[in-house]
């Protein structure tokens, strides 16, 4: 039987505690060796799996070296290099333009502030948070991807739908030292157990505190629809 704890704060803390035991070594799954590669990988990961991105960046990072080469790359050639990635034409343009700005305005270095990062084409707050956390070791917010959106609603932590509003809620509920790990814990659990279409509630370590549990509830709070 899934019953949410008395407050969103208690619910969020319980989720962190249990998932930290279940996934003690969880971390970012994108592969990169420097800040620019991280930035490019995160831009490419929008509406695309990390696994697919890692497959493409393996040859991409071997071909292009530094922001100047990306900025000066032929648009059609770069797009072709990304052709198995969703929205590859748009993303090729974002990468070229962002690298041009990095060269011209930031001395070839990936910026280290939220405002300067989000000024780059193709970079929203989620992407900027990832780059700050894993490229600069600066934690200014909570990365809200599709797994975080789904789990926070499904677990009754928030009823908000937009990533921006969910992030604000989580920044208030979570201890600051948990902001970074919370995302990775949600991603790991979302992939392993609490999947979008067919979560395995019978094997879930959070089932007893989940108001969306299929063992007890008729409605998935993430979507608002019946199971």
Automatic annotation (TrEMBL):
- SUPFAM superfamilies, alphabetized: DNA-glycosylase (SSF48150)
Pfam hit, one: HHH
What is the catalytic activity of this protein?
2'-deoxyribonucleotide-(2'-deoxyribose 5'-phosphate)-2'-deoxyribonucleotide-DNA = a 3'-end 2'-deoxyribonucleotide-(2,3-dehydro-2,3-deoxyribose 5'-phosphate)-DNA + a 5'-end 5'-phospho-2'-deoxyribonucleoside-DNA + H(+); Hydrolyzes mismatched double-stranded DNA and polynucleotides, releasing free thymine
Cofactor binding comment, as recorded: Binds 1 [4Fe-4S] cluster.
- The residues that hold [4Fe-4S] cluster are 194, 201, 204, 210
Q: Which GO terms describe its molecular function?
A: 4 iron, 4 sulfur cluster binding; class I DNA-(apurinic or apyrimidinic site) endonuclease activity; DNA binding; G/T mismatch-specific thymine-DNA glycosylase activity; metal ion binding
EC no. given is 4.2.99.18
Residue span(s) of domain HhH-GPD: 44-192
Its Gene Ontology biological processes? DNA repair
- Cross-referenced CDD domains, in alphabetical order? ENDO3c
**Claim: Lipid biosynthesis is one of the keywords in the record:** no
InterPro entries under this entry? DNA_glycosylase (IPR011257), Endonuclease3_FeS-loop_motif (IPR003651), HhH-GPD_domain (IPR003265), HhH_base_excis_C (IPR023170), HhH_motif (IPR000445), Nth (IPR005759)
Keywords (alphabetical) are:
4Fe-4S, DNA damage, DNA repair, DNA-binding, Endonuclease, Glycosidase, Hydrolase, Iron, Iron-sulfur, Lyase, Metal-binding, Nuclease
What is its EC class? lyase
What this protein needs as a cofactor is: [4Fe-4S] cluster
Its function, per the record, reads: DNA repair enzyme that has both DNA N-glycosylase activity and AP-lyase activity. The DNA N-glycosylase activity releases various damaged pyrimidines from DNA by cleaving the N-glycosidic bond, leaving an AP (apurinic/apyrimidinic) site. The AP-lyase activity cleaves the phosphodiester bond 3' to the AP site by a beta-elimination, leaving a 3'-terminal unsaturated sugar and a product with a terminal 5'-phosphate.
- Write down the HAMAP family for this protein, in alphabetical order: Nth
Which family does the record assign? Belongs to the Nth/MutY family.
Q: What is this protein called?
A: Endonuclease III
Q: Which organism is it from?
A: Halalkalicoccus tibetensis
């Amino acid at each position: 039987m899934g019953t949410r704890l008395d407050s969103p704060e208690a619910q969020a803390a319980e989720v962190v505690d249990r998932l930290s035991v279940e996934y003690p070594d969880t971390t970012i799954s994108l592969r990169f060796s420097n800040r620019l590669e991280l930035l490019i990988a995160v831009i490419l990961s929008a509406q695309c799996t990390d696994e697919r991105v890692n497959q493409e960046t393996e040859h991409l990072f071997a071909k292009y070296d530094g922001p100047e080469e990306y900025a000066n790359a032929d648009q059609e050639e770069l797009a072709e290099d990304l052709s198995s990635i969703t929205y590859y034409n748009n993303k090729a343009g974002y990468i070229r333009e962002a690298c041009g700005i990095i060269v011209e305005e930031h001395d070839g270095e990936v910026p280290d502030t939220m405002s300067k990062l989000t000024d780059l084409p193709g970079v929203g707050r989620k992407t900027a948070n990832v780059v700050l956390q894993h490229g600069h070791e600066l934690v200014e917010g909570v990365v809200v991807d599709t797994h975080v959106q789904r789990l926070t609603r499904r677990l009754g932590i928030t009823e908000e739908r937009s990533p921006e509003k969910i992030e604000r809620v989580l920044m208030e509920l979570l201890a600051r030292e948990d902001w970074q790990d919370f995302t990775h814990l949600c991603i790991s659990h979302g992939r392993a157990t609490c999947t979008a279409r067919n979560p395995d509630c019978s094997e879930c370590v959070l089932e007893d505190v989940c108001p969306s549990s299929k063992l007890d509830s008729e409605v998935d709070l993430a979507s608002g629809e019946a199971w």
